[in-house]
Amino acid sequence: MTATENATTSSPEPTPPQVGQAAVVYNPIKVDIDAIKAAVQREEAAAGWPETLFFETSAEDPGQGPTAEAIAAGATMIIVAGGDGTVRAVAEALRGSDVTLALLPSGTGNLLARNLKLTLNDMDHSIASAFTGTDRDIDIARIKIERSDKSVDEHSYLVMAGLGIDAKMIANTDDDLKAKAGWLAYVKAIVLVFKDKNRLHFRYKLDQHRERSVSAHSIMIGNCGSLPANILLMPDAAVDDGVFDVLVLNPKSVFGWIQIFGKVFWENGVLARTKAGRKLPTRDVDALKYTTGTSLTLRLTKPEEIELDGDGFGEAVAFKTWLEPGGLSVRVPAE
């Protein structure tokens, strides 16, 4: 893979919302639903909307079913109150429809909200923005995952899919500790992952390029590039540019990891966030390669853990992922 400058397209002007029917799809474990209902009642009345509908997710159905119920009940906007898994599930059910997704960030990740630069810890502001904001079309990624038994399941993701360090870290994270300690729970998992000397061995084909064979530590496909803890993993990724960014980590020594940390935490995390820093020259490093595309097919030599938007999705032996440009409408605050 070679580094490729990210292609960008101009975003359409946001669309002001019309009065419609709101619904809230919420994860009862993640949110205070009584506080949400009180805030929703205030904002719907101020905006002249009818009474909002409420639908609860469950362990068996993280959001697709309740979203389908909300659409059938006439919802034109669905406010998602939950973590990244709930957002991903609701978006999967909304893709390609004319129903708008509004975010009420909750949990430890809030990955899509971070990448849209939305307010993370102000419930009243988020709900007010749902009723008074504008609509923005963003890309949504699709993936077909092949399992060891040859079965194939299909999903959507909004932020990132990954094999390697990120998927193994998630698989090794204690869920109870994560609920109590948030992202600190990943520290133990990171230590375990760095002790794992196994590498990924796979063949991949990006768009119409020729197939390649690779041995690497990790591969990540990003619809957008910001992660918690102020980590800008893919600085050129944009949620509405019509392409995803592909990142391959291939450190072969301690020096390789130093290159990666310098690139991600210093160049991406510090320099890329300032006007002066963006003017400074940057250089490619052997341990980390970026490219872009719209379709990627990959086959592994053995099953490996895979993650979508921060949630583990079991083991994959192969997958095909592609982008649907402008496939999801998201409510953002009015200018």
From TrEMBL:
InterPro entries per UniProt: ATP-NAD_kinase_N, Diacylglycerol_kinase_cat_dom, Lipid_Phosphate_FormReg, NAD/diacylglycerol_kinase_sf, YegS/DAGK_C
Essential cofactor(s): Mg(2+)
Pfam family, one: YegS_C
GO molecular function, a single term: ATP binding
Family classification: Belongs to the diacylglycerol/lipid kinase family.
GO annotation, biological process: phospholipid biosynthetic process
Ranges of compositional bias, category Polar residues: 1-12
Top-level taxon: Bacteria
Keyword annotations: ATP-binding, Kinase, Lipid biosynthesis, Lipid metabolism, Nucleotide-binding, Phospholipid biosynthesis, Phospholipid metabolism, Transferase
Protein name (record): Diacylglycerol kinase family enzyme
Residue ranges, annotated region (Disordered): 1-20
Every DAGKc domain range: 67-147
